[in-house]
Structure formats: C-alpha cells, structure tokens
Amino acid sequence: MIRLRKVSLLNDIRKNRAPLFYWSLGAGFITTASVITFGYFYYSYRIRQRTKEGIKKGEVERIISTEGLTSQELEKAIDLLQKQRIHEQIQIDNFERYKKLRNKRREQEGLS
C-alpha cells in the first residue's frame, strides 16, 4: 500500500527543506517572467515584419506600427498613407455627387 506524505510548509521548515521550496518558487517566477518577455519581443518582431511586408507590397492595412523602421521605410509608409487618404477622399466625393444626382433624378421623376 502506498502511503501519501502530508505536504506542509511548516513541516518543511522544521525539517530544513524550506530553501528548496523557495528555490522552486524563484525558478517558477523566473521561468514565467522569461516566457512573458520572450512573448513580448516575439510579438513586437512579428508586428515589425508585418509592417515591413505591408510597405513592400503597398498594403496600407498591414502598416501597424512605425517602431523599428528606417527613414526610407517611414517615408514609403507616409506616402502610402497619403495615397490611401486621397483615394478615400475621392470615394467620399464621388458618393456625395452620386447622392445629389440621385436626389435630382427622383425630384424630376416626381415632377413629371
């Protein structure tokens, strides 16, 4: 038959096993901090790579962060964003013109 030992911090302290407990806590904390730090740097690396790919391909949606970009890449990103803004403004202007023309046609059809 297997006997289970009672696990108790007080028992460990009495038998001078507390340093092992604290070492294991410390190792767990260091491991957790290391994993979180690695995850943060990997995530920021992936964001930087995604932004660089977006600049190369000309996809404005992929430009997320300017962190870690060279001055040339920043200039390209700014140019892409300006082109995108101009394109969106043209779309808005075209939609406004379309609404005005549609309303004029409806009024003319209503008068006829």
Structure in a nutshell:
The protein has 112 residues and is an all-alpha fold.
Coarse shape: elongated
Helix content: over 70%
CA-CA gap between termini: 101 Å
Low-confidence stretches: none
Biggest sheet features: none
- Structural category is mainly alpha
The overall pLDDT average reads 85
Gyration radius, rounded: 32 Å
Strand content: under 5%
The number of distinct β-strands equals: 0
Number of helices: 3
Number of domains: 1
- Helices and strands, in N-to-C order? HHH
Transmembrane segments: 20-43
Keywords: Membrane, Transmembrane, Transmembrane helix
How would you describe what is shown here?
Keywords: Membrane, Transmembrane, Transmembrane helix. The chain crosses the membrane at residues 20-43. The chain has 112 residues and is mainly alpha-helical. It has one domain (9-111). The protein is 78% helix and 0% strand. The protein contains 3 helices and no strands. The radius of gyration is 32 Å and the shape is elongated. The mean pLDDT is 85.
List keywords for this structure.
112 residues; mainly alpha; 3 helices; 78% helix
How is the topology of this model organized?
Layout lengths: L8 H6 L3 H40 L13 H41 L1
